[in-house]
Write a structure and sequence with these properties.
Number of strands: 0
Strand content: under 5%
Order of helices and strands: HHHH
Length: about 100
């Protein structure tokens, strides 16, 4: 392999364009990072919202909102399993995907 065919990450120094792209990717990862604490907060907020819907709108509205959240979790779990995760790792990833939004508040 000559220098032009070497892949990024093979030990060679990155050029200016590659450094900018790497920094952009790092910033995006940091921006969209979710934590389990944020997911717990999201779950608690969701429970409060569903309880408010039950108190104000009745059982039908609470079931509709709770069902929508459950559907989001099932879709996230399906995506996690489709992405190669199994068991607890898949459930944790789905939990983070469904409720991790609260970490950004």
């Amino acid at each position: 392999m000559n220098g032009a065919e070497e892949e990024v990450g093979s030990g060679r120094e990155l050029n200016a364009h590659e450094r900018v792209l790497a920094e952009d990717r790092r910033v995006m990862r940091e921006t969209f990072r979710v934590t389990i604490g944020g997911a717990h907060t999201g779950l608690a907020a969701t429970v409060v919202v569903v309880a408010l819907f039950a108190a104000v709108g009745g059982t039908a509205w609470a079931l509709a909102v709770g069902g929508a959240v459950a559907l989001c979790f099932v879709v996230a779990l399906t995506a996690a399993v489709g992405g190669g995760r199994r068991g607890r790792a898949a459930v944790t990833r789905a939990y983070l995907l469904t409720f991790g939004w609260a970490g950004w508040l």
